[in-house]
Input
Amino acid sequence: MKVAVFSTKPYDRRFLSAANTASHQLLFLEAPLNDMTAALAQGYEAVCVFVNDCLDRVVLEQLAAQGTRLIALRCAGFNNVDLKVAAALGMTVARVPAYSPYAVSEHTVGLILTLNRRLHRAYARVREGNFALQGLLGFDLHGRTVGVVGTGNIGLLVCKAMAGFGCRVLAYDVRQNPDCVGEYVDLPTLWAESDIITLHCPLLPSTHHLISTDTITQMKPGVMLINTSRGGLVDTRAVIEGLKSGRIAYLGLDVYEQEADLFFEDLSDQMIKDDVFERLLTFPNVVITGHQAFFTQEALTNIAETTFANINAFSEGKTIASNLVTAERVVRA
Ligand code: NAD
Output
């Protein structure tokens, strides 16, 4: 089958080529998929896309008209695909539901530890010959309360890890998981009682700006907020106000609502035009990574293998039901 692979980086090429055991014809494109680039997939039955590729109505209609039948997402999230339009056009949308929940949960714990012990500041200080401890004071995680929103593959592991530090773990999910070591509570309780809040639910209409002025007001003064899920879960302007007032004392982000204009590219010799993002970078108690939580060898191997399992199945007239994303599934979530 002919597969157009958008937003390709050298590491994508390496891991996807290794997993292409059925020798599909791959076209590696550095460009992201959008209305300007969709024409590059002319005659390709499948497109392979990542988190910031745009699959809105315009793009999907163009792809369908050009012969694309399969959208193979090489990620778990699917908020960038208009699933109703894809279904109406008879397109199959398959994703990689779980590739390494360890990668993302471990990065989440890394952000918590970095912010608490100010490792980002300590690193810079020591390199400058500054060994003063003033401003680096942390707190014991042991005995603190951690609120985990979303207890699927990743959230479940975060609950376990934080319980391992001796934290009290509160959890919230629309569907409770019997394997969760946390105590399920409602969201107002989680906001009010948590010292650390970490988000692991998908971005859906119901979770858009879950973190808002209203919810921040319900949080403990001095709360640590972590988002390694999707940028749209957080109203960034509300969070900036929370940081300025001190209600939020630590912020760790691996995702950002407008990240499509920034992340995954080297922009170090350019002016960043996103003033909201630049304001975030001025706070000493904010650590941002550029959507790298998933980025481990194991995760890239699993992503590539599952992506090709989806492509192989489709090319044989089959599907892997558990990897399909449908509009009904989103409504249920
Ligand atoms: P998952 O599907 O296993 O779990 C998501 C959980 O969220 C489910 O238990 C679901 O019931 C719950 N949920 C749905 N709606 C909710 C709501 N309104 N409130 C609370 N919980 C709700 O997904 P996962 O593999 O654990 O991934 C979680 C998220 O992490 C993904 O949706 C994706 O956006 C993000 N992610 C980020 C990276 C990264 O590199 N930063 C990598 C992979 C996934």
